[in-house]
Amino acid sequence: MKKIVPAKKSTARRRKPAPKKSKTILTLKRVGYGIIVFVVLGLIAVGYHYRDGLAYYLSYKTDKVLKAEKEEKRISDVRIYEVLSKHDTKVIGFDVSQYQGKIKWDSVKSINDNFNLGFVFIRATAGKNAADTRFEENWKAAGKTNMVRGAYHYYRPNENSIEQAENFIRTVRLRKGDLPPVLDIEQLPKNQSLDSLKKGLGKWLKRVEKAYGTKPIIYSGESYYSDFLEEEFSEYTFWIANYNFFVERIKDEWLFWQFTEKASVNGIKGNVDVNIFNGTENQLRNITIE
Description:
Blueprint: H1 21-49, H2 51-85, E1 91-96, E2 110-111, E3 115-116, E4 119-126, E5 130-131, H3 135-143, E6 148-154, H4 161-171, E7 182-184, H5 194-212, E8 217-221, H6 222-229, E9 237-241, E10 256-263, E11 272-277, H7 281-286
Helix pairs in contact: 4-5
């Protein structure tokens, strides 16, 4: 009789079915959304409950800021009045760019209704290819006023100086009675030496002088002027920015002095830069394009 051998049990383990990830992720998302909704509703409830206190607190902070700004403006207006009063024989002017927005030129006549305006500098270009978006508009409008107008270029130290000069020359058409062109230099270079910067400035000045037949004016802050420009560009005249509260008179070596950026001018929204010419109206006319 054949011996029956019992079959061996398989030792292989059965694989457990893979967990259903999609259901788990969906559940977690629902929990997450639920928590977010709960937190948001909680914040709304707290805000509503303390609405009166929050309103008082926020209005109080706003009032403090407004009072501080008002006081700062008042002090600035006092200084502007004092400085202009000390220069009653000089000519007062201002400068604008696209950042002043739309200007009502028919209303632009004085500062704080006390000091008449005799000249304006208008930004024309910046760097090698940028033009002020309101230059054409401002330039034409200023030409219809009794003020002497001038145009300036904002110099970018890390861009080619000749290309910057050509940008200004393409954009600005000076005529008899306009002020000389202005080079505005305020920044230090990032990828070149100071010697290279000065050479670039010199190239811009020479190219523009050749194009218009008159030496340009250089604009800069007093520290920049003293540290980098005064000696090497002594053949040029300077328009200097100095907002020091304790400086009350223009220096002899400055042709123009920008002494504030916080003046109020009828026809212009917001604050405006104000400048003093170091001379009389006749002397101002004498430095214009012939």
